[in-house]
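User: Structure tokens for both sequences below?

Assistant:
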Amino acid sequence: MKETNNKSVRRKLNILQVHNFYREPGGEDVVVKNEAEMLKEHGHRVYKYYRRNKEVAYLPFFEKIMFPLDSVFSVKTYIQIRRIIRKKKIDLVHVHNTLHLISPSVFLAAKKEGIPVVMTVHNYRLCCPAGTFYHCRHICEKCMTNGLMQAARCKCYRNSFWQSALVAVQTDVHRKLHTYRDVYFICFTNFQKEKICKLQDIDSEHVFLKPNGLKKENLEKTAGKNQILFVGRLEEEKGILDLLKAYREMTLELQKEGYQIPKLVICGDGELNFISHLFVRENHIENVVFMGHVSHEKVLKTMAESKCVVIPSRWYEGMPMVLIEAYQTKTPVIVPDFAGFSSMVCDGVNGFKYAPHHTDELAALLAVMTARPWEMTCDFSEMDILRQTEYEANYQQLRCIYERCMEDVRNIEKESAVRK
């Protein structure tokens, strides 16, 4: 992790947390909630500036017309953020997401008020308008080499030329305005950091490494049920169909050898919900249970009872909360060996890895997990990045990042005063 100033924050801070919720809930929302609670529990005051994309449906006619321009630069956000900073005597602004209603104008507002601003990099939106580096069932980094309008040509965002163009223009405008020059970034892995540091104006000295944190749940590993767990959105990039294909292959193999077939429990919903159900029916696959949306408590309980958690993502994930939850419940994970997963999962420590998109390798791992579980044991010895997800350690990292950013701003102000 990047070195930060170890000086303690002597006073409690006024922190403005900024987040634009998508229409569908996701892992980012969990991180936002967890960090707000963590900061409050340590005595800091957290003020929230939240918007929700579902608000768009209820906007007055004129505001709907202006929506494309507002998503590039929201005057409303700019004015409100500056007003909050002054009124609440904000020390630091922490941004999680600005798409679409908040817009990057929040960064310019904070800069105008002389306040440091930190952004957690939950996805790759600064490099790829879709935010995923994923298109047409494959990893795609053409926006890094061919320019952001490549996304519009390929309809990368929501399969829409106009929506893709809008997000591309938004990002390009703020790159040209050098909006991100003075922003500090928090990445989860070195893989993420390497990607965003390729962009102009992103200073590697302004990029910190801090994984997501989670408060320790009083939930120990229970007597394992013969089941495999998937938690996440049922969407292509999440690899749900890869998992179902691998499960089908595993089932056929184990049936030949007379083994009891483990149950596949799927927690989540999404655009591939119907197709996933159809795949199971058409292939006559038994023992697949679709749970739909379930509570966080239910997920953790089911996880603690499972043989393993499979995260078959096809895109460059940031740091899925399900991975941290699996670690805390001492449930092995099975993930593709690429991007951030390569450093977040260690074979025999907290899980196992397979070649990305190779359903045969995934099926083989699942079969061994069932037939010869002693070959798939994990000792859960401490890996550095996972130890940092522990609640108190994670708070200390965040606190030190804040202090470093505020110290930098103070030093810049002193230098400016001396020059005057």
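Moving on to the next sequence.
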Amino acid sequence: MQPACDAPAERFDPVTGKPLRKIGETVFEDLDSQRAQLRVIRHVRPIQGPSADEGKLRDVPPVMADLPPRPLEGCAASAGLLSWLLVQKFANHLPLHRQAAIFGRDGKRIPKQTLCDWTLASGEALRPIVDRLQRIV
């Protein structure tokens, strides 16, 4: 195996001094793994209304943008986190207490009861899809 030709002095034929040209390449691939990461996605909702001076003259309520749709009302988990939780539990057979321990090792404390609540609520939210699939089958 030849050493890599990174230095400009090595890109010339040592006998003739002529520049070398690319005649092929070797590709090496690494298979890498990244653990799932929790990250906070912050949604900023501006509140708009009249200025303080105009607000005194007229009774105009402030207006705020709607929240993006959420898979579960009042739940801090995104659709991606909920789907990951369900796949880990049901497809990979990873119990919720182990998932809570994994999150804890990463510095994110999510109690097992919270994961259980999210799992149950996700099941209820998916109920119409399950019912429809059962009717089709």
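User: Anything stand out in the second?

Assistant: The chain has a mean pLDDT of 85.
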